[in-house]
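User: Hi! I have a protein structure encoded as tokens and I'd like to know what sequence might fold into it. I'm fairly new to this, so please keep things simple.
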């Protein structure tokens, strides 16, 4: 299949993400004043020992509220002490008797020590003259108990103490977690418990433009912001105001986040970063509260930079009706951002940098001057930018002498910085797997195949299906070689990769920024080459052309409905550029019918051309397919040699 060529974009280098200070804080910061020493974390073991100690001490203190409990003796022992005249006084309540001895005596059997206070129980069948004996022994009979039991309040406190202690511990832990950021809980969900503390980036290393590659044109646009943050007085003297915000728009992986951090590091100002989705919560009003908190913290250390990633999450155009639930929460959060950026108070020295992949869906109130004063397009890098990015990503990777990063950059058009970082990492992983001391050119080549074509599958195909696949891929490759101005064929393989049974890779020698009708028709003819080869050789077509037809449909729809390459449709854009939108929303039914007819006409013409060329060059098609069956994979030079076509090499710098 012909290689896809995307419009050029920017790339960059990955970098550590600043940490959060609290789990319920939806932003990270770097370059701000260092925070105060963190509070000591709660130790569960210490809390348990403390609770046990408090419990024991409380029981000890409560036990002092009453007198020492008396020794329990038998009624026989009591009668014996009365007869001996050793009883001083007693108190009786029913059959229960308490009393004091005149002098201590040995405790009854089974107990140790002596006793001078006693308690006993008079049997109901006892028929002695107790009162006479007490009177004779001159024992004082009192109306007050000799031993006072703990009061009802004391007993209640003793019984409720464990429960009260557990409740106190729970309240203490809840307050510590809410104040120290040990957990989100309800407090963390409903709002902040204390002002957040900015966090210093580890080792104090800031990201600058030296850590970013392939952004020369973007760096020039952002230098105004950097200079304004460095020298605000020079601009105030001329009556110039600080830009309120900068919108970075571009495809994923082009380094928008890193670029924002580089601006902050270059200017030497605090940097707060957050994802827009982190402001949204289930409870309405939380997002707006967090936005107010974020801007308040940034103003404390102004001048500062706030970076909001994927701002289209909350910045989409607002609807006319009142929302409910998450929709209403999103609009409240957006309204708060609008107010903070250019409301009655203003941003006051805070520059907001936002990143998005969908700048076209943002609310007009957000993108107007005064809020986001400028929009910077961050595009994938050109060839020189890709080479610079590869050098940065391979700084810590030992490279073999045969590695040519310039050649790798030439064969990776359209790749972003994230793609190139992944390519370098895949090559390093292959070198480790192969137990090599260095990353070789073969490792990079194999890693590029894995990234672009997919991983190899251990699939055993029947010989007939393998032969049909060889002719299918040979049809793609041969038509790519025959079309004037087509992208050169880099590799052909019938080894199953990803979801494909075979792959033909074609990439341009130089980055392309505009496409002619002739070039696009060549792309369509090349994409239809596999189906045409099956028709010419076997007289049937299979489902193997599914992805080819999807590519053909996309190209032809753009030619007819968007790029004015049809005389009948005319020079107008009749279809939406976003493939995710419904087909034909911006065109009348008659126009859609015309577009459909023109698309079919172009595809039919290209298919007839593909079949005709393959019939005219059947010998070359057979030779290429046989070479592919014999070798399974053909590199660029081998493929052109097998087809008997001279490759005209030209490099455009």
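Assistant: Happy to help. Inverse folding works backwards from shape to sequence: for each of the 653 positions I chose a residue that suits the local structure. Here it is:
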């Amino acid at each position: 299949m012909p290689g896809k060529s995307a419009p050029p974009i920017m790339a960059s280098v990955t970098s550590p993400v600043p940490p959060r200070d609290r789990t319920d804080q939806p932003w990270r910061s770097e370059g701000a004043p260092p925070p105060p020493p963190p509070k000591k974390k709660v130790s569960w073991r210490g809390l348990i020992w403390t609770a046990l100690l408090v419990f024991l001490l409380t029981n000890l203190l409560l036990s002092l509220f009453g007198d020492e409990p008396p020794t329990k003796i038998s009624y026989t022992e009591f009668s014996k002490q009365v007869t001996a005249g050793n009883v001083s006084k007693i108190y009786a309540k029913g059959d229960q008797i308490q009393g004091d001895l005149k002098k201590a005596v040995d405790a009854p059997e089974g107990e140790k020590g002596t006793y001078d206070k006693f308690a006993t129980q008079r049997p109901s069948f006892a028929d002695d003259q107790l009162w006479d004996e007490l009177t004779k022994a001159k024992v004082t009979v009192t109306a007050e108990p000799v031993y006072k039991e703990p009061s009802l309040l004391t007993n209640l406190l003793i019984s409720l103490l464990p429960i009260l202690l557990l409740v106190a511990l729970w309240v203490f832990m809840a307050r510590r977690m809410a104040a120290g950021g040990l957990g989100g809980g309800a407090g963390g969900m409903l709002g902040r418990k204390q002002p957040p503390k900015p966090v210093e980036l580890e080792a104090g290393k800031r990201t600058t433009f030296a850590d970013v590659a392939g952004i020369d044109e973007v760096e020039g646009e952002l230098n105004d912001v950097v200079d304004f943050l460095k020298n605000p007085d020079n601009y105030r003297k001329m009556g110039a105001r600080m830009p309120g915000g900068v919108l970075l728009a571009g495809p994923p992986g082009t380094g928008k986040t890193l670029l924002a951090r580089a601006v902050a590091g270059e200017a030497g100002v605090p940097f707060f970063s957050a994802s827009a989705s982190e402001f949204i919560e289930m409870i309405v009003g939380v997002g707006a509260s967090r936005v107010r908190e974020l801007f308040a913290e940034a103003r404390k250390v102004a001048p500062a930079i706030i970076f909001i990633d994927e701002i289209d999450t909350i910045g989409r155009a607002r609807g006319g009706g009142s929302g409910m639930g998450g929709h209403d929460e999103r609009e409240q959060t957006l309204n708060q951002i609008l107010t903070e950026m250019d409301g009655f108070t203003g941003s006051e020295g805070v520059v907001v940098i936002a990143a998005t992949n969908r700048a076209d869906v943002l609310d007009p109130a957000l993108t107007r001057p005064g809020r986001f004063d400028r929009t910077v397009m961050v595009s994938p890098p050109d060839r020189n930018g890709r080479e610079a990015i590869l050098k940065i990503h391979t700084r810590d990777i030992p490279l073999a002498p045969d590695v040519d990063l310039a050649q790798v950059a030439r064969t990776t058009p359209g790749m972003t910085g994230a793609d190139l970082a992944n390519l370098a990492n895949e090559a390093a992983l292959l070198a480790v797997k192969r137990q090599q001391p260095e990353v070789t050119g073969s490792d990079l080549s194999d890693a590029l195949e894995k990234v672009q074509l997919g991983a190899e599958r251990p699939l055993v195909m029947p010989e007939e299906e393998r032969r049909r696949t060889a002719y299918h891929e040979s049809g793609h490759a041969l038509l790519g070689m025959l079309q004037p101005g087509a992208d050169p064929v880099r590799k052909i393989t019938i080894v199953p990769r990803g979801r494909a049974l075979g792959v033909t890779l074609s990439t341009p020698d130089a980055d392309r920024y505009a496409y002619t009708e002739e070039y696009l028709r060549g792309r369509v003819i090349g994409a239809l080459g596999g189906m045409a080869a099956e028709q010419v050789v076997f007289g049937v077509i299979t489902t193997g052309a599914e992805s080819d037809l999807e590519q053909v449909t996309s190209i032809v729809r753009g030619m007819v409905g968007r790029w004015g390459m049809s005389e009948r449709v005319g020079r107008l854009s009749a279809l939406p550029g976003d493939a995710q939108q419904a087909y034909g929303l911006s065109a009348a039914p008659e126009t859609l019918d015309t577009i459909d007819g023109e698309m079919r006409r172009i595809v039919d013409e290209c298919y007839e051309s593909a079949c005709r060329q393959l019939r005219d060059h059947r010998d070359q098609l057979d030779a290429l397919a046989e070479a592919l069956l014999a070798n399974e994979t053909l590199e660029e030079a081998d493929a052109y040699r097998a087809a008997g076509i001279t490759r005209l090499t030209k490099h455009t710098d």
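A useful reference point when you look it over: Residues 1-17, 180-203, 320-326, 579-584 have pLDDT under 50 and may be disordered. Feel free to ask if any position seems puzzling.
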